[in-house]
Amino acid sequence: MLKSHRYSCYGITAILLWSCLIALSRSVSEQLGPIGGAASLYTVSSLLLVCVMGLPKPSRFSKSYLLIGGALFVCYEIFLALALGMANNRHQALEMAVINYLWPALTVLFAVLLSDKKINWLVYPSIFLAFFGVAWSISGDQGLSVDQIAANIATNPKTYSMAFFGAIIWAVYCNYTQRVAKGQNAIVFFFIATAVTLWIKYALSDETGMVMTTSAAIDLVLAGACMGAGYALWNTAILGGNMMFLATMSYFTPIFSTLLSSVILGLSLSITFWQGVCMVTIGSLACWWVTREKPTSKVSASKEVQSSL
């Protein structure tokens, strides 16, 4: 029993470490630029992931998984990184993060549309609650207002679009990899591909040269450590942890991420914003709960939880 609790604690720690990445990504982009900062961050993360997980052989993976799954992964990561980095301010960056957390509900929606199985009708109000939560968060303190949402989006339509389409892409990625990956995990290759793509984009952009300060270097190392240590702890947690507990906790990531980001970035968030985050969390958790299937083994359980992170 104590051993199981210890493994579950490893899983919780991994979730908390990953929840810090939104704030650290924004901090790095403020110091090194949206594109250059993202490229640097994914380079450091790739190196640490190689140290933690090793570099698997390409021959172990199917071509469709590497090419299509990799393309979806790279697009998502770039959209999210640039949405966070190009946001007008730190508060708007957190709005990008909330929009990004629509992907669990979208994943369930796409799975429902593609499935021939009978679906619990509660999934639809759960999906609606998640979307309503996002709208509530970005409406501001005046309450839900279509005009206010439109005005907020108009201040930076590119970042809002990247955050929203990024959530759609990740939902497609989750459904696709579940069908074709067959237990494979090419996350290291995908991170390397993301870093290379970002460096190419940086070289072709008009972004000014980066100046690596001590503060930027520290944030880079911290972000990379959160990524590498998170995966190391997670891989350990799924060996002996309570998978149902870890799956449930993983769906509270929007709350953990918003809380830690507000502390790291020094933001004071309104009650309205927190209410929206809670709606997104509850809606996503409800989507998973009403559509979940009891895993037949610990391996299948771990795959279910990994797709929620």
From TrEMBL:
Q: Does the keyword Transmembrane apply?
A: yes
Instruction: Tell me how this protein sits in the membrane.
Output: Multi-pass membrane protein
One of the record's GO cellular component terms: membrane
Asked if Acetylation is a keyword of the record, the answer is no
Transmembrane domains' residue ranges: 7-26, 32-53, 65-87, 93-114, 121-139, 159-176, 188-204, 210-233, 245-267, 273-291
Pfam families, sorted = EamA
List where in the cell it is found: Membrane
The record, for InterPro entries, names: AA-Vitamin_Transporters (IPR050638), EamA_dom (IPR000620), EmrE-like (IPR037185)
Keyword vocabulary terms for this entry: Membrane, Transmembrane, Transmembrane helix
Q: Which residue numbers delimit the EamA domain?
A: 9-137, 160-285
Task: Report the family membership.
Answer: Belongs to the EamA transporter family.
Q: What is this protein called?
A: Aromatic amino acid DMT transporter YddG
Question: What does the record give as the organism's lineage?
Answer: Bacteria, Pseudomonadati, Pseudomonadota, Gammaproteobacteria, Vibrionales
| Originating gene | yddG
